[in-house]
Amino acid sequence: MLRPLSSLLGRLGILLAVGLLLCWSLGPVYWSFVTSITPPVDLFGDPSFWPKHPTLEHYAKLFGSTSLSQGNAVQSVWPQFSAALLNSIVTAAGATAVTVAVAATGAYAFVRLRFPGRDICFYLVVATLAIPAYTVMIPLYRLMISLKLIDTYTGIVLIYVSAFLPLALWLMRSVYQAMSISLEEAAWLDGAGRFYTLVFIVLPLAAPGLIASAILTFLNAWGQFMVPLVFSPTLATKPLTVLLPEFVTRNYVDYGLMNAAGIFAIVPPVLIVLLLNRYLVSGLMAGATK
Amino acid sequence: MMRSTFKADEAALAAVFVVPILVIMGGLVFYPLVISAVDSLYRINPMQPDAPFVGLANYARLMTDSSVQASWFNTLAYVAAAVVLETIGGLGAALLLDRVRYGRQWLLAATVLPWCLPPVVNAIVWMWIFNPSYGLLNKILLGLGIIAENKVWFNDQATALFLISLVHVWRMMPLTAVIMLAALQSIPADLYEAARLDGAGPVKCFRLVTLPLIASGLAIALSQSTVFAFNLFDEAWILAGSSIDTRSVIIQIYLTAFQNMRLSSGMALSILAMIGSLVVSLVYVLRVYRETRFD
Fold it and tell me: Which chain B residues are closer than 8 Å to A284 by Cβ?
């Protein structure tokens, strides 16, 4: 009699805990979405968890050629918003492509090729994980000015690569170390060169690791704020993360607009979580247990 | 003969693969790091003509600067709040995820989501929740009868520090949860069985089986929480800007270097912050090392 009751209570407890965890993790994101489709009048009246008059007004403001704010025509934010969205995509995708390519080949060299100073090089690079980005930022700023790389895609991507490469290298090295060398040896015996073996035999097998490093690098680059705050002063390279807070500093804070724009910045990470969660979690675990 | 050509070929390929890494990391991390350390001993300010050697004067001034002291205090508050909340919440979430049988990967996806979002967007989403006039937090607390009137949350330093920590915890707790989940899943099930046969209840099981076996995972999670909270910038900057009540050490560095243009002073503070961050990580690493060595 007691046993089924206590197990029922235990199940209820777990259910309650699951509900709590879901509310905590998804609640703020859901609220942001609701805000983005609630008309301004309701926003400052009595917003409800289920929007009574859903509207695309805030999104129209993002995309429109002119926009209304408190009844006054104001300049459209679309030129800024679209430029920043493009910058976010270009810098994050560029950093991801370069980082993964360099990490995939570099980690292979650190695991399979023998050359003098191999281990020292690897540990020096990975040790930079412990150096916070801001420690090098001020000299880097002056270096980038002298190289004329401030506010250029090249400059931003290079900084991202230097920041995210150590983690990707670490991840890819553990992937290669876990792979058996026998397949590669068979290929060499058949006369295949090192490079051919790497590209056509090793890399396809390392695909899960490559995807995991790509995801981690992309998410890190996509969410970066402090680096572009310093190195992207204008819309030539300014990403969404730097543009969004600028909507606040005007005398009127348009929360509907900000949440609508925020939803756009949230979409790529959400898609990654939904479609590639398995790789993401394995990458997080491997990256965290350094 | 055959062997030596293979070796030369190998070294050439290694050079092609490794030299780009050395150039990028050397040029963009090690070189600026050295410059940072050296230049912190000079007075470098674009507004002033020359850059004389000043020894440790920049560091000495940092020790007595009241804004710097305030920023150290705030950073310690962030670290304390973040480590406690992330560890409790993350461990709780991991224990739950370990028990859930159906739809675990979906619950895991939902749990991990906040970590994936841009910190700036998180801060904006929460800023709207904390809004004094129309925010959700005031509405919920009013509805529950916990507060009698709308509160302006960021008027009070302790509350402001706590709320900024909370936004940070919302983002970073998933990392602790994932690390702890990995540790939990590495525990063999027969250990629990044996403990249960010996008459251990759930609490005793947790204390005697779970806790010792997840200790090294816990240490890793703790060090991650500490280092990330130590380097907190985005959340505090978006939610409260340069306010002295909430500015972290990193915000202080940013303001010193990029708004007041006292570059060498900023570099000195960034060197101190790096040493602090390194010492903290080292303490945890040594702990883990000792623990894994002893068993």
Answer: 112, 115, 175, 178
Report the residue of chain A nearest B178, measured CA to CA: A285
**Interface A:B, Cβ pairs < 8 A:** 256
Q: Rounded CA gap, B82 and B107, in Å? A: 23
Summarize pLDDT for B8-34 with one digit per residue, the tens: 777 888 889 999 999 999 999 999 999
Structure tokens at B230: 């130590």
User: Where are chain B's structural domains?
Assistant: 65-294
Element (H, E) at B213: helix B211-213
Whether A139 and B39 have beta carbons less than 8 Å apart is answered as: yes
Distances (CA, A) of A211 to A206, A274, B12, B18, B164: 9, 14, 28, 21, 33
Whole-number Cα distances in Å, B269 to B8, B77, B90: 47, 18, 32
Q: Measured between alpha carbons, how far is A73 from A10 in angstroms, rounded to an integer?
A: 58
| Residue A49 in contact with partner chain B when CB distance is under 8 A | no
CATH-assigned architecture of domain B65-294: Orthogonal Bundle (1.10)
* Residue A122: CA count within 13 A, CB half-sphere: 24
Q: In order of start, what are the domains of chain A with their CATH numbers?
A: 78-288 (1.10.3720.10)
Write phi, then psi, for B70 (nearest 5 degrees): -60, -40
3-state secondary structure of A223: helix
pLDDT tens digits for range A154-204: 999 999 999 999 999 999 998 998 888 888 888 888 887 888 888 888 899
Phi/psi of residue A164, each to 5°?
Answer: -105, -10
Which sign, positive or negative, has the C-alpha torsion B1, B4, B5, B6? positive
Interface contact A149, partner B, CB < 8 A = no
